[in-house]
Amino acid sequence: MKRLFWVLTSVILLSSCSDDGINFFTLEQDIQFGEQLDSAILANPNEYPILDRTQYAEAYTHIERVMNAILSSDDLRYTTTFPWQVRIIHDDNVLNAFAAPGGYLYFYTGLIKFLDNEAQIAGVMAHEIAHADRRHSTQMLTRQYGFSMLLSIIMGDNPSQLEQILSQLALGGTMLKYSRDNEYEADKYAVTYLCDTDYHPRELAGFFEKMMGSTQKIPEFLSTHPSDENRIKNIDDVWRSLGSKVGNTYADRYQSFKNSLP
Fold it and tell me: What is the pTM (predicted TM-score) of this model?
């Protein structure tokens, strides 16, 4: 009877994971899964050439300043629960950033060098932080792979599947897409977080406007489901609803950040 109970429970869990508002992972499991992904990234420097923190201390000072400013917002739920950290991946040909569950953030040098000012990268980072803090990652991954599969990865029993998931996250694979509601919610909270900082909260919309006027292909991490125009409108609506705060862009300081990169 006990075995039947657990079988039925597993069926209920798996069938319920299509609801964006439901997450059957614990916070500790979010962190464990993020640790697994981070370890896989560090173990594969050919695919993910992480900049050394000692050699590029100035670059990490810049990007961690942005992260810490966003994490100071009172609107985050897991500021002290998740082990927030950011890594820079050296690949100028990739315009991408992604967040792993538990607060692990990754930014490619290609994206950093493409942006115009520090408020824009703060907008992108706030968007990724929102995905992690609202726990969209494990919701999305559970929809794609199922609770049991992800649990086996956390337990260390499925390293090949971990590598596949990592590749999809890092390169913006089409298999792993946040839902429309997830994307709109991440945009909303990105603006909300930035209203608690010195940065101009609307610069996430400025990023989309820059991409629309560029010949560059918009990165998958910000191109899922909602159109650019709709997202700009929604970002503007949130910004105005919060008082249309005008903050700093820190263009000169951002140029120093870019100059510190290889």
Answer: 0.84
